[in-house]
User: Which sequence fits this backbone?
C-alpha cells in the first residue's frame, strides 16, 4: 500500500510503498478515506516537533484521519463503519495509569507516543490498524469531513477544561476571543458561535481581502488585526473577554491574554512555542490575575470522550463553513500540494479512498 | 464604643471613641469578641492597599472578626449566637449581579467595598452591625478561634476553584506545596494535611530555629528554604507538585510555580504584588503549561459558602496547631502590640470582649 512518510534527514515528505498492516487481536483494519494536514505536520516534517518510531528511519505522517472499517475482528465495530482514530497510544513499556483511566490526553509527553507525530506511525496510508478502543464512530453523512473530528476534539477538550475551571461559580460567558485565524482557530470560533456567545472575536495579522476574515465575519464574529490592536489592548479597543482561546503559539499571547480577560474569565492555551525570553510586568499581571479571579488552562491532545463530542459538534457546523474552511482535498498523486501553504490555503486534506 | 481606626495621613492606628452603630432593618447588632490581624491590615495601615469610606477621614480596621449577636432584629439569628461576618458589601450604587448571585467574591474590585479594607468600616470596634445574610454561624466551642474563619475561608475558595479547574479529569493530588510560611500559608498547609495529601511542603526564607518551621514539621510537612531551593528547582530537589498555593505575593513565584507543578497540576495564586518588570522564558513556560496540561487560578476574597466550609475546617484543626499559630491575643489597651511583628509573631488578634 502507499503511504506518505517523512524520512530521517529529509525535510519534505515522500510517497512510499509499505506492507499493508495486519490487525492483531482486538484490532481493527481501517481503509483510510481522508487525512487532514495541520501545523503540527509541518513541524514534524521540519523536525521541530515529534520524532521517529524507535529504531526506524521513517515516520508515516498524519494524525487527523477518517476511514472505513474493513476487518472488524471480534470488536464492537462492523465492516463499513466510518471511524476516526485517536492519536495517543501507550509507550513501549505498555499502558500506564493515564491509559488505564481513559485519559491519555493527560499523560506527560514521555508517557505516551502519538501516531503520526511522535514515536508511532500515523494514518497517511491506504490502510491502518488500531485497537478498537481508540476508534470513534463517525456518522456516514459527515464522513467526508471526518478528518476534522481530531482538530475539533482538541478544542472540545480545551473548552471542557476551561469551563471546568469556572465551574465553582455561576459563570455565563458572553464574550469570546480566539487568538489565531488558522484552521483550528476558525473551527473554535464556529464552536463558540454554536455555544451561544453574544459577541465573538478572532485575532489575526492579515490584510483584507482575506478568506479567513471573510469566514470570521460570515460567522458573525469581529476580526481583530493584532498589528493595530495588541492583545493587551483588546479590552479598551473592544471589550474584556470572558473566554480567550490561544491557538497561535506566540508565547507573549499567553501572558498578554491575562489582561484581555474579563473578571472571572479564563484563557485556554494550546499553541506550543519555542523557548523565548522576554520581559513582562509580572507584578501587574499577577495582581490582575488574583484581584479579578482569572484562570489559565493549558491543554494538549484529546481523549475518546472529546472525539465523541467532536463528532456531535461536526454535525452541527454549517455546510458553507466547512466548504469554505477546507480549501482543498488532494489525491495522493498530488500529495505535495496538500502540504503547501499560501494566502488562500486554510485547511487541506489528502484523500486515499472514497467511501 | 471604642474602635481601632487608621486616619487619613497617618501611618499607625489609633483607638478612638465612636458612636455605637444602630442596626437597620434586617441588620444584626454584634458584640465583637476578637478580630485577627493580617498582612492586608498592615498594607491598609501603610496606605498601599484599600481606601477610606467615601467622604470620611478614618477607616475602622479589621476584616477577620468573630462576635456575639446582641440584637437579632427580625432575622434568623438569636441573641447569643456566635457569628463571623463576611467582608465584601455592595458598593454605593447598591447590589449588583455579583451580590444578587451570592458570589460577591467574584466581583471586580470596583463592584464592591470591603469592610475594614476598602471603602467600608471594619470590625475592630466593640460593636458592629451587619445584614444577617453576611453573617455565618460559628459553634460556641470554637468561638475563641472564630477570627480564623475569614482567613480559612480565603483558602477554602482558592482550593475549591483550583480543584474545579481539575474536575474535567480524574485527578488525585498527592503532593502539595504552599509558598509562604505566614499565618495564611500555615493554615493552608494544615488544610492540605486534612485533605489527605501524601506529602506536603512549605516554602519560606527563615533560619532554624524558627516557630513556623516547627509548625511545618509538626504538621508532617517538609520545610523548603527558598534561599537554597528556588521554586523552579523544587521538582528536582524534591518532586513535582500536584497543587501549589502561592501566598507570598512575590510576583516571580506566580510564573516559577508553573515549573514546580506536576503534569496535570494546578497553582492557586493569592498574593497581591506591586508592579514589577522582570524577564521570563515565556516560550518555555508557555510550552510547559500546554504540553503538561497545567492550570493557574487566581483567587481573592470568599463568599458565605466558603465561610461555612471554613467553620467546618476550623473544627477539625488540631488544638496544638491553633495554640502555636496564634502567638498572641491582645486586649484593646495593648492594641499596638497586635500590629507589631517580630520573628516570633505568627498570628495575632485583638480581643474586644469575652463570650
Assistant:
Amino acid at each position: 500500500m502507499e503511504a506518505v512518510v517523512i524520512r530521517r534527514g529529509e525535510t519534505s515528505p515522500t510517497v512510499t510503498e509499505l506492507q499493508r498492516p495486519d490487525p492483531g487481536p482486538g484490532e481493527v483494519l481501517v481503509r483510510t478515506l481522508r487525512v487532514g494536514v495541520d501545523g503540527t505536520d509541518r513541524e514534524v516534517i521540519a523536525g521541530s516537533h515529534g520524532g521517529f518510531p524507535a529504531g526506524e528511519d521513517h515516520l508515516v505522517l498524519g494524525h487527523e484521519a477518517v476511514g472505513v472499517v474493513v476487518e472488524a475482528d471480534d470488536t464492537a465495530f462492523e465492516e463499513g463503519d466510518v471511524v476516526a482514530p485517536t492519536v495517543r497510544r501507550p509507550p513501549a513499556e505498555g499502558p500506564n495509569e493515564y491509559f488505564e483511566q481513559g485519559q491519555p490526553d493527560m499523560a506527560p509527553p514521555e508517557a505516551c507516543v502519538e501516531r503520526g507525530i511522535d514515536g508511532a506511525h500515523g494514518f497517511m496510508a491506504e490502510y491502518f490498524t488500531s485497537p478498537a478502543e481508540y476508534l470513534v464512530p463517525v456518522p456516514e453523512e459527515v464522513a467526508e469531513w471526518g478528518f476534522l473530528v481530531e482538530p475539533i476534539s482538541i478544542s472540545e477538550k480545551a473548552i471542557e477544561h476551561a469551563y471546568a475551571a469556572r465551574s465553582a461559580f455561576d459563570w455565563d460567558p458572553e464574550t469570546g476571543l480566539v487568538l489565531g485565524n488558522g484552521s483550528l482557530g476558525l473551527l473554535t470560533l464556529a464552536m463558540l458561535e454554536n455555544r451561544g456567545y453574544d459577541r465573538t472575536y478572532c485575532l489575526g495579522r492579515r490584510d483584507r481581502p482575506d478568506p479567513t476574515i471573510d469566514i470570521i465575519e460570515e460567522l458573525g464574529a469581529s476580526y481583530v488585526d493584532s498589528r493595530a490592536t495588541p492583545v493587551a489592548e483588546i479590552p479598551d479597543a473592544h471589550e474584556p473577554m470572558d473566554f480567550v482561546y490561544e491557538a497561535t503559539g506566540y508565547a507573549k499571547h499567553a501572558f498578554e491574554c491575562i489582561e484581555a480577560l474579563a473578571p472571572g474569565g479564563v484563557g485556554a492555551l494550546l499553541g506550543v512555542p519555542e523557548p523565548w525570553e522576554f520581559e513582562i510586568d509580572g507584578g501587574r499581571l499577577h495582581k490582575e490575575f488574583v484581584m479579578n479571579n482569572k484562570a489559565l488552562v493549558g491543554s494538549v491532545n484529546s481523549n475518546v470522550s472529546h472525539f465523541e463530542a467532536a463528532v456531535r459538534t461536526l454535525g452541527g457546523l454549517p455546510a458553507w463553513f466547512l466548504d469554505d474552511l477546507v480549501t482543498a482535498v488532494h489525491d495522493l498523486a498530488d500529495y505535495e500540494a496538500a502540504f503547501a501553504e499560501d494566502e488562500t490555503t486554510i485547511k487541506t486534506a489528502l484523500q486515499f479512498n472514497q467511501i
About this structure: The mean pLDDT of chain A is 97. Chain A touches chain B through 57 residues (CB under 8 Å).
